[in-house]
């Protein structure tokens, strides 16, 4: 399937219909030649009301960077229209053009890839680095809601997620570690200590 190839090519000409057509069944990825029609992608609730990440593209080879949590998505709006989006690795990120200047970006697997934005005559408009990582913001919010009095530092370190700081009790330390494991199974390094 086109979505799993190392380089996925999207042509916006196939997405010229109004936006509501996408929601009603437009294929998630159209290949240059006829390809099996995949089920329509249903945009997650957190994306439907999200403010688009705006990336300013200037003529030439500008580079930007987008960080997307795994299994999360972003709507990215470019300040000038483009014709094609080449995805370096469809295993890491999936892209659906929504309009000539907007894309839907989904983090599928941890890792790094890039998007190459081109015009109709294959001139490069921009290269955008995409990093798919652990959902650090979600973990921080979860811990803050559950244990608001504890101060825990959460940082990625290569393939690991490092927890540090001082916590008030052994029970809280175990709880924090258990929650972190849900966000990064088998990849949590615990450097937290007990206060006092």
Features of the shown structure:
single chain, 196 residues, alpha/beta, five-stranded mixed sheet, four-stranded mixed sheet, 4 helices, 12 strands
Description:
This protein is an alpha/beta fold and 196 residues long. It has 4 helices and 12 strands, in the order E-H-H-E-E-E-E-E-E-E-E-H-E-E-H-E. The strands form 3 sheets. It has a 5-stranded mixed sheet with strand order 1-5-8-9-3, with no helix packed on it. Strands 2-4-7-6 form a 4-stranded mixed sheet, with no helix packed on it. A 3-stranded mixed sheet has the order 10-11-12, with helices on one face. Strand 8 (111-118) and strand 9 form a beta hairpin. It is elongated, with a radius of gyration of 20 Å. The termini are far apart. Mean pLDDT is 75; it is low at 1-41.
């Amino acid at each position: 399937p086109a979505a799993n190839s190392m380089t996925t090519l999207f042509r916006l000409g196939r997405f010229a219909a109004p936006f509501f057509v996408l929601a009603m069944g437009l294929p998630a990825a159209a290949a240059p030649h006829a390809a099996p029609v995949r089920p329509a992608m249903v945009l997650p609730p957190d994306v439907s009301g999200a403010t688009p990440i705006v990336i300013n593209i200037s003529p030439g080879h500008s580079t930007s960077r987008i960080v997307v949590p795994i299994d999360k998505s972003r709507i990215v709006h470019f300040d000038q229209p483009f014709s094609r989006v080449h995805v370096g690795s469809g295993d890491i990120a999936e892209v659906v053009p929504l309009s000539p200047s907007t894309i839907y970006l989904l983090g599928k697997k941890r890792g790094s890839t890039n998007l190459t934005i081109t015009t109709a005559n294959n001139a490069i408009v921009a290269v955008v680095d995409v990093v798919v990582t652990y959902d650090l913001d979600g973990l921080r919010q979860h811990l803050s809601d559950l244990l608001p009095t504890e101060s825990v530092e959460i940082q990625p370190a290569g393939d690991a997620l490092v927890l540090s700081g001082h916590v008030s009790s052994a029970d809280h330390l175990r709880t924090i570690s258990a929650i972190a494991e849900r966000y990064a199974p088998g990849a949590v390094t615990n450097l937290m200590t007990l206060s006092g």
